Amino acid sequence: MASEAKVVDEALVRRDDSASTRLSGSSVAWDDNHDSRVSQKRTEIVDACKSRDIPSLRSLAESTGGFLDDTLRRAAWPILLGLPPPGDAANGSAVKEDWKDLPRHRDEEQVDLDVNRSFVYYPNGQSEAQLEQCKLQLSSLIVEVLRRYPYLCYFQGYHDICQVFMLVLEPPWRAKVVARLSILRIRDFMLPSLGPTTSQLRLLPDLLAKADPKLRRHIATIEPFYALAGTLTMYAHNIEAYHDIARLFDIFLAREPVFTIYVFAQIVMDRRDEILDIDEPDMLQVVLAKVPRNMDLDALIARSAGLFDRYPPDTLRSWRYISSASVLKTARDVGVCAKQTLEEGHVYFRQQVKDIRWADMQDRIKMTLWRYRRPVRTFGIAIAVAALAFYLRRNPTLVHYMASFFSK
Q1: Mean pLDDT value across residues 267-278
Q2: Which residues, including other chains, have CB under 8 Å from residue 78's CB and lie 6 or more apart?
Q3: Is 217 helix (H, G, I), strand (E, B) or coil?
Q4: Confidence of residue 84 (pLDDT cuts 50, 70, 90)
Q5: Which of 177, 309, 311, 322 is the most exposed place for a label (fewest CB within 10 A)?
Q6: pLDDT of the residue at 20
Q7: Is 22 in contact with 29 (CB distance < 8 Å)?
């Protein structure tokens, strides 16, 4: 494995020979007059990687062009996700047995179906044989992570995320980086229920209500599921240009997971006039779900960051309903999250599973009591529900029994 120091040293000496360099993910073509700024930023990224300075990397990711190119991303991304430096005793401690010898994961059949539909837009100029090789590598990456951490649940769109990491990172880093991303940054999407994902989406209308009340009222009848594909896949399902999605990944890895919601809110607000001209609900649903092509990503990121500063997530009404074990709360500080272990992530996963079961139990109790409601006993039922909820919270072993009773 190329060492982290080698990667950053390669980045430091790397220079573009062309007269005009297009920054990865930026709509700005940098000509000769900008070479000095590009060179200076490259040096700053390399220095931040050498010192593992996450605040500086966040600032650099937000600025024009992000991490500039894949050479620098190979140095920066593992650091943002908390991978220890090569040579650190912890670096290889979690990888012992060959993943191919581990039991099959329950979702591998779906992985095969999705991988067969991958690499539609990028990489470009590949032969059929080369694309098939890419698909084999992508399948191996996904299956390795799922087999090593079998409690994770695969979701459609996960392959879109892994595809980007596979193209950017060198093979020895891929599974380690994707594992930390899966368990510590997008864990909510890999639970055995869509409940936590839905809870994240509920933040979007709250944010729009604060930032643009008129626009929010206009789309009030539309559920926020139009943002699902974008936020679920870190926009890898929506963005067709490789340099654009790599640029977006720079900022998503450098900032808290909830930032994807702010980006989608900003995209919607940037299309304000178009959306306000549409009254038909079905058409609104289609338009809202579409992420425009050829966006000025640097401007979008800057506006989204400003939106975050004006309306932090804890000022949104639905924030209180987000589980304390959700990545939106446990990974809110990227530096703190980078120090978390995969074992800690597993503990959060189990807590979220308990929260999901508890929410399901409450829903079943309410539905059952509603079926057998009696108006004259309304007050008594309310007290009974509260008492029962408190008792079950203190006696979690009864939850499974109650669940089977109320599901009859």
Answers
A1: 97
A2: 4, 169, 173, 176, 177
A3: helix
A4: confident
A5: 309
A6: 33
A7: yes
Distance of CA 86 to the CA centre of its chain: 26
> What does the alpha-carbon distance between residue 225 and residue 199 come to, in Å, rounded to a whole number?
11
Each residue's pLDDT tens digit, 276-324: 999 999 999 999 999 999 899 999 999 999 999 999 999 999 999 999 9
Residue 340 has a pLDDT of 97
Cα 237 to chain center, whole Å? 12
Instruction: Burial-class residue 315 by CB neighbours within 10 Å (0-12, 13-18, 19+).
Output: exposed
> Which residues neighbour 203 within 8 Å (Cβ) at sequence distance 6 or greater?
258, 261, 313, 316, 318, 319, 322
Give the burial string for 33-68 (b: 16+ CB within 10 Å, else e): ebeeebeebbebbbebbeebbbebbbebbbbbbbbb
Token reading at 149: 């951490």
Q: 330 with 337: CB under 8 angstroms?
A: yes
The one-letter amino acid at 358: W
Q: What's the rounded Cα separation, in Å, for the pair 74 and 7? A: 7
Q: DSSP letter string over 47-101?
A: HHHHTT-HHHHHHHHHSTTTT-SHHHHHHHHHHHTTPPPTT-TTTTTT--S-GGG
Rounded Cα distance between 303 and 41, Å, is 21
CA–CA distance, 146 with 100 (Å, rounded to integer): 11
The per-residue pLDDT for range 155-208, each reduced to its tens digit, is 999 999 999 999 999 999 999 999 999 999 999 999 999 999 999 999 999 999
Tell me, what's the pLDDT at 26?
39
Say yes or no to pLDDT of 25 above 70: no
Long-range interactions of 173-176: CB distance < 8 A, separation 24+: 173/1, 173/74, 173/78, 173/83, 174/141, 175/95, 175/99, 175/141, 175/144, 175/145, 175/148, 176/78, 176/83, 176/91, 176/94, 176/95
Residues 6 or more apart whose Cβ sits within 8 Å of residue 323: 196, 199, 329, 351, 352, 355
Task: Compute the average pLDDT of residues 328-335.
Answer: 97
Phi first, then psi: give them for residue 29, nearest 5 degrees: -90, 125
Widest CA span of the chain, in angstroms? 82
Instruction: Name the burial class of residue 120, with classes exposed (0-12), middle (13-18) and buried (19+) by CB atoms within 10 angstroms of its CB.
Output: exposed
pTM for this structure?
0.83
Alpha-helical regions (H) of 149-212: 158-168, 171-180, 195-201, 203-211
